[in-house]
UniProtKB/TrEMBL annotation:
This is PLP-dependent aminotransferase family protein. GO terms for molecular function: DNA binding; DNA-binding transcription factor activity; pyridoxal phosphate binding; transaminase activity. It comes from the Bacteria. The keyword Transcription applies. It comes from Paraburkholderia tagetis. CDD domains: AAT_like, WHTH_GntR.
Amino acid sequence: MEDTRQTGNLALTRVEQVMQVLRERIAARALAAGARVPSIRMMSEQIGVSKSTVVEAYERLVAEGALIARRGSGFFVAAHALPGGRGEFGAYGAFAARGPMGAMGAMGATGPRLDREIDPLWLTRQSLETDARALRPGCGWLPASWLPQDAVRRALRAIARDPHAQLTDYASPLGLPALRQQLAWRLAQHGVEAAPEQIVLTDGGSQALDILCRFLLEPGDTVVVDDPCYFNFQALLRVHRVKVVSVPYTPTGPDLAAFERVLAEHRPRLYVTNSAIHNPTGATLAPTVAHRLLKLAEEHNLLIVEDDIFADFETHPAPRLAAFDGLARVVAIGSFSKTMTAAARCGYIAARTDWIEPLVDLKLSVSFGNGELAADLVQRLLVDGTYRRYLDGLRAKLADAMGETLRRLACAGVTAWTRPQAGMLLWAQLPDGLDAALVAREALAHGVVLAPGNVFSVSRGAGSFLRFNVSQCNRPKVYETLQRAMERAVEAKAQPA
């Protein structure tokens, strides 16, 4: 492990020390654009570190664009400004002036636009672009500290040591056979019978849905979604230039009367939904609703994509449309981004046998395969028992967080639409018909990312709702900021137009 030395309150590795020295010299104009930096031997002697440490520091600065390397001549200060527009050398001058923690301040200064229209991608941008110190009760993923990071590290080390692990080549067209076998077994636990040859690995659930849209839809087709539904369903479907219509969602599934009317009026080609732990409501599909839904689908020649990304949060398995249907007109997709790691994207499609070849061809045409390293990582965590033990603890933590969040929201006057049986998502209504978008903007200005309801609603009929992620709601500031934001919304509502 690299040695570290203390600089103020921040422990810097020796490599980072060398990098900082050069950044400071560049910022102070001691090294001008195009100037040759000290040789590796000279810098090693000046700072008292090994030559290999200097080499690594120089290489990192080359990768960042601060230096350029010339074969046989050494390293030189880059002649062009770096992105960021802070003087001749971009952000580095500001970095040196602010000290080691300056980069965090710079991130806050270049965060997301607060005046952007609230649309299906608004929430993603806020969650990913805000300062790292922001709180994210509206995001759709677990805190990093809740995820099995140590297990992921162990698996990565095991892969690196395994002489048979595939680290550099393309994956097979269907994806890692051992993982597809494991997925077939896991699907069978939910009543979905799919042979490994019926499973195609993808780089996450979003790619799985994108491939299916390319395969099943033409521009101008109609697709039905739940209202509310996962906001990225809307964003992705619009990329494919289809018409999106919606059906109200209830605590037991879609409103069947409204669903039948939509089928008769719009003749949609496809229905995209979650059945187990619905996003954003946390509701669960009832068996009677599932049976009637499939009968309507058969009568109207409707295809269904069932996104099962939250399956591993369940404590008691919910009905699966793909299980009742036998993968005849239902396609099951899923991934491990929410429960294992979003950094190694690994998802899947389970579909009828005659669709597999064209789906594989589509996957190859748009991505030339999927990540074998990510698939190997997921496979190892699934088979050694680590993931199962982790899930047992995670479900208990989520149940506790759900209870606490429900209690705190009730105290604030926010009403839960239903109490989810499992998972991390909670759909709740603000008091007095307050505008959730206005509340979310006010909260964002104070470093708290909320999820306003109309982001999830095609009909824009969820204006007073918010989606909460209970795993991200364990800080008092979340509720303090929510309360202040609601008070501001009340004041704005009372003002004359």
